[in-house]
Every structure is written in C-alpha cells, then in structure tokens.
C-alpha cells in the first residue's frame, strides 16, 4: 500500500498476556468490526460491544463502573458536567405536565433547570424543606414522577432527611434522585437509604484537582439505567475519554482527600469561630445526620464588618485563592455579595441565606497551620 494509506491505518497493538496497570485513554470516536451482528448489538444496549464513543467508550466505562461500585449502584452514565448529568436525567425522566417535588435549597444550576422545565414543558415543581415526610406526602399528585434532593445542599449545607423521605416516594411509585456531590460516596451512599438515582458533579470532589469538568448519574436499577442510557445517547452530553481518565486518576485518592478535607475543616471552622471579626460560622458537624458519616469541606461564615469587610478580606488572601467551585486540593474562598450574588437585592440575598458579609470557603488539603495563618492576617486586616 502507499504511504498515504499506511499512515492513516495505524493499528493499536493487541495485548498478549499483560494488562495495563492504569486505565488507558481510549481516545477514539469509533470502533471497527469484522462481525456486523456485534456492531448492531452494541448500538442497541449499554453493555454490548463498543461501537461509537457517544454510546460507550472503555475509558468512560471504567469511570462509570468505578463510581457505580462506590455508590452501591448497578451502573452509571458519565456526562460532560454535573449539569450535563442532571439535565440529561431530568429530561429523560420527565414529560410535559409531569410533577417534581424538589428541596428548596438546591444548586443554582439545578434551580434554573427546574424553572426552565416549568416554562418550556409545563413541569410543575413543588418545593419542600426536605426534612418532613408529611410535607412530601402532602405534595404528591398523580403526575409526580421525581423527588429531587441534595444530600448536603449547595450552598446552604441544608441536610435532607433522605431515609425518611425516600420510602414515601417509593410507596407512591415516585423516583428519588439525590445529588451527592457534597457528601461523596465516602460520607454517604444514598442508594443504601432508598435513592433510585444518584447524581454527581465530578468537577468537585470525585475529580478533586480543579482540572476537569464532569458529571455522573448512578442507577440502583438496571432497567432504568437502560432506559436513560438510550436517552443519553440521543442527548449527547457524554463524557470525553480524557476527562473520564482525569476523573479516574482523581478517584484513586478520594478517600485520602476526604479524610484530610474533613480534618482541615474541623480545625479551620473551630478557629474561625474564635476570631472577633467573625460573627457566625455555619458548618454542620458530626452527628448532624445519621446517614452522613463526614462533612463537606465547603461552608459559610459571616463577617461582623459586613460587605466592606468581605471585600477587604478577599483582597488580602495570600495562600487561599479567590475562586468559585470547591472539592479541589487548594482552599478557595468566595464573597457572594460582591461576586456570584452581586445582582441580587438585599431582600433576595436574605431569601438565599446570604448576608452582605457572608464568605463561602472550600477548604483544601494544605497544611492547616498555613490556612489558619492566612485567615488570621486577612481577617485582622478586614476587621481593622
Ligand atoms: C457544581 C455542582 C453542580 C454542577 O456541576 P458542574 O460540573 O459545574 O456542571 C451540581 N450540583 C452541585 C451540588 C454542585 O456543587
């Protein structure tokens, strides 16, 4: 054959007798076949042969299997972001005129998605506090399809009573969907407490290094996975092999990182509560809920000096970085009133449980002495 042909037909060598220690990146869009039957089969079921990477890809599958296993589910679908997973799932579960019962306090993107589903498809949404099974029972209608909760809500750290609420939904034939981004399967496995689907922003703790955007939906039931997989293939917001590979690399240290995050949070939260410039620390501690065995590294504290103190504090950080997001190795801080929530009126800020002096901190895995020293010099400046 001519060089022009040979240079485009470079084959991946078949492995004989050895296995790669790390999951390889299968950076390929398609797979070739000798057997047309096998190709057709892979196009119609999630566990058939690999055909096309929007349907399934071995690197992405390794991530899906690992997270499904950690969460105690049967299978998972990896998406291009946390919102990609949530949007793909809710579009797959809901139709025009269906009804959702959702916790008041949910991630901003999820809030916006529910509002969009309401406007676009007439999906009715009833908000509940998330702690009272009677409130859920009273909200049920014949069109209710989904109960939507967050294990530990972003940004309020509000904890839903999943073990009490899920049985009410199940008895009514309603699926319980839980966003477990904050707790991770290290601190809570919602399927063990009655959830049907668990969603994640893998951008946060699962990836864990602020270098990848990704999401997952994990299923307790194989039939539901099969149904949503068919929809995910059409929806197309699937994970890319390299993003999946980075997330797998992050997963190796999830347990170690969560342990260190939790130890650092305990130290930083307790220290903050003693500083005169800090008026309040909102950080759920051990014992806040039986089904959660550890607490997230993101929490809020309020400055006595209000808005001005918030701006001064953020301008003085030396180790801690001013940035949104959470779940990475580095400690990040955000002053919502001057950044993410700048356009809100004082009234709307109050409704979001944010005061002009609220600071959101996502504690990383640095040495806690360095974090406390940085906070001390910045708070002394902010409070002066
Ligand atoms: C960040 C986040 C999301 C959205 O994830 P992306 O990866 O940014 O799309 C969803 N839920 C929670 C709780 C989050 O913190």
Automatic annotation (TrEMBL):
<dbReference type="Pfam" id="PF01053">
    <property type="entry name" value="Cys_Met_Meta_PP"/>
</dbReference>
<comment type="similarity">
    <text>Belongs to the trans-sulfuration enzymes family.</text>
</comment>
<dbReference type="InterPro" id="IPR015421">
    <property type="entry name" value="PyrdxlP-dep_Trfase_major"/>
</dbReference>
<dbReference type="InterPro" id="IPR015422">
    <property type="entry name" value="PyrdxlP-dep_Trfase_small"/>
</dbReference>
<dbReference type="GO" id="GO:0018826">
    <property type="term" value="F:methionine gamma-lyase activity"/>
</dbReference>
<protein>
    <recommendedName>
        <fullName>homocysteine desulfhydrase</fullName>
        <ecNumber>4.4.1.2</ecNumber>
    </recommendedName>
</protein>
<feature type="modified residue" description="N6-(pyridoxal phosphate)lysine">
    <location>
        <position position="204"/>
    </location>
</feature>
<keyword id="KW-0456">Lyase</keyword>
<dbReference type="InterPro" id="IPR054542">
    <property type="entry name" value="Cys_met_metab_PP"/>
</dbReference>
<dbReference type="InterPro" id="IPR015424">
    <property type="entry name" value="PyrdxlP-dep_Trfase"/>
</dbReference>
<dbReference type="GO" id="GO:0005737">
    <property type="term" value="C:cytoplasm"/>
</dbReference>
<dbReference type="GO" id="GO:0047982">
    <property type="term" value="F:homocysteine desulfhydrase activity"/>
</dbReference>
<keyword id="KW-0663">Pyridoxal phosphate</keyword>
<dbReference type="GO" id="GO:0030170">
    <property type="term" value="F:pyridoxal phosphate binding"/>
</dbReference>
<dbReference type="GO" id="GO:0019346">
    <property type="term" value="P:transsulfuration"/>
</dbReference>
<dbReference type="InterPro" id="IPR000277">
    <property type="entry name" value="Cys/Met-Metab_PyrdxlP-dep_enz"/>
</dbReference>
